Amino acid sequence: MEPTRSRSWSAIALAGLLGAAGVTHFTRPRPYDAIVPRSLPGKPWTWTYVSGVTEVALAAAVAVPRTRGLGGLLTAGFFAAVFPANVKMAYDYRTKSPRAKAIAFGRLPLQVPLILWALRVRRSAH
User: Fold this and answer.
1) CB-based burial of residue 59 (10 Å sphere; 0-12 exposed, 13-18 middle, 19+ buried)?
2) How does pLDDT run across 26-69, given as a tens digit for each residue?
3) CB 22: neighbour CB atoms within 10 A?
């Protein structure tokens, strides 16, 4: 596979991940509401929907070659910004089943490769 095609495939895969995750904020909002840090102002559902819209918009930005560079950068920032929700989830799940704990704690280190992926997509757009 030529480098250009693989870079485009990576961007489309990231866009797909973002889009799918964004849609689940609307179709299954409860798990997202539960991990919104209570220190944020307003209702948790507001943050759930705002982050869902954000993910769908980022998916579109990453999918379109013309906006891919900015989309990748903004996606990396978004992945960093939602890290506190993952920390809250891990804390809240510390007494749950081993499977639930594994999912919650597994999300923490997953943010690093997601951020790096978004930055690679950004660099490949130039």
Assistant:
1) buried
2) 999 999 999 898 889 999 999 999 999 999 999 999 999 999 99
3) 19
Q: Reduced to 3 states, what is the DSSP secondary structure of residue 47?
A: helix
Tokens 């506190």, residue located: 84
Q: Which residues contact 15 (CB under 8 A, 6 or more apart)?
A: 59, 60, 62, 63
How many domains is the chain partitioned into structurally? 1
Please, which residues have CB within 8 angstroms of residue 67's CB and are 6 or more apart in sequence?
A: 60, 61
Query: Coil, strand, or helix at residue 101?
Result: helix
Q: Let me know: does 60 contact 27? Beta carbons within 8 Å.
A: no
* DSSP type of residue 66: G
pLDDT of the residue at 1: 41
* Structural domain span for residue 72: 3-124
The amino acid at 5: R
Condensed to tens digits (0 to 9), the pLDDT of residues 99-112 reads: 999 999 998 999 99
